[in-house]
Design brief:
Layout: H1 2-9, E1 23-24, E2 28-32, H2 37-49, E3 53-60, E4 63-71, E5 86-87, H3 91-105, H4 115-118, H5 132-136, H6 158-167, E6 178-179, H7 185-197, H8 201-213, E7 218-219, H9 238-264, H10 271-278, H11 291-294, E8 304-305, H12 307-318, E9 322-323, E10 326-327, H13 331-338, E11 347-348, E12 361-365, E13 368-377, E14 383-387, E15 392-398, H14 406-419
Parallel strand pairs: 6-11
Antiparallel strand pairs: 1-2, 2-4, 3-4, 3-15, 5-8, 7-8, 9-10, 12-13, 13-14, 14-15
Helix pairs in contact: 2-14, 3-7
Length: 420
């Protein structure tokens, strides 16, 4: 069924003819257009040293030109399959953002409107003037999840998270700094989507994005019957996890001490904000890849995707909002969300300028940022992006992340597309 569905999604009459070269070794399966052979070369090198598995997909001019997968999907050594999905962490934010843009394109949301217009309870704690645009560009000052909840497990309780965000006070004046909302982003954007659409977040994702595009694996809050397709995350040994816990407790004390000293000396520090945004209490014991976690939506960090589905979603963005006759966004909206947003003041959480768009960041390669591309990467090595100038999209999912080839693969995909 998956192969039949895939065949229906790969048009051959438009653009150049695609020469699909099937291959199946002990490590790699799939196909690759000869013009993109350098992408295949990078993935093959990765698989020779990578302890887990991965899949990569590339669309160019609306056609799938690369669709490859390889390695193992679990600790028992079972091979990665065509329909294997992988937990993809912050790559999830790009999918969540695309859903909000669909709402905006339909007139349900205005980027410059206050969040409280759609979600009145959000106005508590001095948040009444925070705009949707400030949320999408990580300027709302609400990244400090560690001070909002008492345990990472609370992220599986949507009502609890919404109440915690409603009570929260911004860590800085909104709009004056950029601070990466590593875990809170998805709940804020997701609740706006629920308020304006009247649908549960996971249901809206399926009905308005996955189903119209015919995607074979795109879930944030996956149904139980699909979990057999989920790759198992590479886990540390019990001894290493114990060491991480001890280190985490020590790190908490040292981070706050070091941050205070640096601030007193007038030195800009991101230590405390990074810890507050990235490490809620109990995070070291929280299993992002467990069945119970994957069934609940954490729209900033627990998407379960195939590379093919991510690449096709971004192919829609790369083509101006339409693919195979299915239009989800207007060209004007795609142009608007692809524009780089100004970064006011100094940064929090992450020191570098990630070249934020509305819900996406810039795409970095070994030679620097690609000026015409936008998307979202995740911890662990996954990521997806679109380049409208080249009508090109790319996605990588993996269950390990050691020495992720993301930047190198991105560079090779871009170089290949420019040479066609």
């Amino acid at each position: 069924m998956v192969e039949q569905a895939l065949a229906m999604k790969l048009p051959t009459e438009r653009s150049r003819a695609i020469t699909r070269t099937p291959f199946a070794t002990s490590r790699i399966s799939g196909f690759c257009d000869p013009a993109f052979r350098r992408v295949e070369d990078v993935l093959r090198r990765q698989m020779r040293s990578h302890p887990g598995g991965a899949a990569v997909s590339v669309f160019h001019r609306g056609q799938c030109v690369v669709d490859m997968w390889g390695g193992v999907r679990d600790s028992r050594g079972n091979p990665w399959l065509q329909d294997t999905m992988a937990p993809s962490f912050s790559t999830t934010k790009g999918v969540c953002s695309t859903l909000l843009h669909i709402c905006a394109d339909r007139g349900l949301v205005d980027y410059n409107e206050k969040v409280a217009t759609y979600w009145p309870e959000f106005a508590q704690g001095g948040k009444g003037n925070i705009t949707v645009r400030q949320v999408l560009t990580h300027q709302a000052g609400l990244y400090h999840i560690r001070r909002m909840i008492d345990d990472a497990g609370r992220m599986l309780d949507w009502p609890h998270m919404i109440k915690a965000i409603e009570r929260a006070v911004p860590d800085h004046t909104p709009g004056t700094r950029t601070g990466y909302h590593a875990l809170t982003y998805g709940f804020i954007v997701g609740e706006i989507i629920q308020r304006v659409s009247g649908e549960p977040f996971s249901q809206f994702l399926q009905s308005e994005l996955a189903e119209p595009l015919g995607l074979d694996g795109l879930y944030i809050g996956a149904p139980r019957e699909e979990l057999h397709r989920a790759a198992e995350l590479t886990k540390a040994s019990p001894a290493r996890r114990a060491a991480q816990q001890v280190l985490g407790n020590l790190l908490q004390r040292q981070v706050y001490l070091a941050d205070g000293i640096l601030q007193a000396l007038g030195v800009t520090s991101h230590l405390r904000s990074f810890h507050d945004a990235m490490v809620p209490r109990g995070m070291l014991e929280f299993d992002l890849g467990s069945a119970s976690t994957l069934q609940e939506p954490i729209p900033a960090g627990n998407g379960l995707f195939t590379a093919r589905s991510l690449a096709r979603l971004y192919a829609m963005l790369a083509a101006g909002g339409e693919i195979d006759g299915v239009r989800l966004l207007s060209g004007a909206t795609v142009q608007r969300i692809a524009e780089r947003e100004p970064a006011p003041g100094r940064h929090a959480v992450i020191a570098m300028d990630l070249q934020w768009r509305l819900g996406y960041h810039g795409v970095f390669t070994p030679s620097g940022f690609e000026p015409d591309a936008f998307g979202h990467f995740g911890v662990g090595g996954s990521g997806a992006w679109a380049n409208p100038k080249l009508n090109l999209s790319f996605a990588l999912v993996t269950n390990g992340g050691a020495r992720s080839p993301m930047r190198r693969l991105a560079a090779e995909a871009i170089t290949s597309a420019k040479s066609v």
